[in-house]
Amino acid sequence: MNKKDTCEIYCYDEEKVNRIQGDLQAIDIVSVAQMLKAIADENRAKITYALCQDEELCVCDIANIVGVTVANASHHLRSLHKQGVVKFRKEGKLAFYSLDDEHIRQIMMIALAHKKEVKSNV
Length: 122
Fold this sequence. Notes:
Elements: H1 14-26, H2 29-40, H3 42-53, E1 57-58, H4 59-66, H5 70-82, E2 86-91, E3 94-99, H6 102-121
Helix pairs in contact: 3-6, 4-5
């Protein structure tokens, strides 16, 4: 570990620590971590991005956009659905997917904007 990126002495602000620990216990941070982990896979991130670009896509559209098989796209979509990232509806023999809500789109767009800023500052 680099000496410059850690405290040189051990001390902490008890009030801040207790307040933030209480906040952490009051929220469902585990579900948030699981949702972010679901999007963290490269193919699932591509799927999420694709659904940011269009209101709704069928599984076949998504498979072609991402460059995977329909079975593989379905696997990723099931995982995203389980984590509350996407929702789906059936129309006859077709399954259409969309983002669960606007927050998912915002998370993806903020992450992309952040990455762009980091690249330009390097």
